Amino acid sequence: MRMTEPSASSRRFLAKKAETTAKLQSELAAKRPSKYRSIKVTVNGRTFHSKKEAARYGELILLEKAGEISQLTCQPRYPMVVNGHKVCTYVGDFAYLSREGLPVTEDVKSAYTAKLSEFRTKAKLFRALYGREIQLIGA
């Protein structure tokens, strides 16, 4: 059996159907609550995963202006490399230098998410590789 090219009207129909399907999937994703029921918040053009995280950012900005901390960064990435093999990447919420010049990494967590095995494993690996604890905020 010989295959023929779809007609112009068939191509338009299929394109419209794909567009409609993509739009519906996008709308459904936008209405679905987040996994842990957190609400994304935007502050000064920066989006945070929760209200708690946004509030902590505000506190850290004030501490930086007061000279208590320096070099504040959001969403710092730490590669977890063991014996030359990248195991994973830990993404903290905030990193900065304390007044004493020591590096600090913070993660804003609820009591529930702080107990999840994935986070606990990454926290132990972080401690082994970087020689310091992740500071949990709000857990």
Provide structural commentary.
It is a single chain. With 139 residues, the chain is α+β, with helices and mostly antiparallel strands. The protein has a domain at 41-137: Trna Endonuclease, Chain: A, domain 1, CATH 3.40.1350.10. 41% of the residues lie in helices and 27% in strands. It has helices at residues 8-31, 51-65, 111-114, 117-130, and strands at 41-43, 46-48, 70-74, 77-82, 85-91, 94-97, 103-108, 135-137. It has a four-stranded mixed sheet, covered by helices on one side. It has a two-stranded antiparallel sheet with strand order 1-2. Strands 4-5 form a two-stranded antiparallel ribbon. Strand 4 (77-82) and strand 5 (85-91) form a beta hairpin. The chain is elongated and about 75 Å long. The mean pLDDT is 85.
Label this structure with key terms.
139 residues; alpha+beta; 8 strands; elongated; Trna Endonuclease, Chain: A, domain 1
Give the % helix. 40-55%
**What would the average pLDDT be, to the nearest integer?**
85
Strand content: 25-35%
Give, in order, the helices and strands.
HEEHEEEEEHHE
Widest sheet: strand ordering: 3-6-7-8
Structural class: alpha+beta
CATH architecture of the domain at 41-137: 3-Layer(aba) Sandwich
Supply the number of helical segments. Answer: 4
Gyration radius over CA: 23 Å
Low-confidence stretches: none
Number of strands: 8
Write down the CATH class of the domain at 41-137: Alpha Beta
For the largest beta-sheet, the strand count, sense and barrel status come to: 4 strands, mixed
Shape: elongated
Query: Would you tell me which CATH topology of the domain at 41-137 applies?
Result: Trna Endonuclease, Chain: A, domain 1
Task: Give the distance, in angstroms, between the N- and C-terminal Cα atoms.
Answer: 66 Å
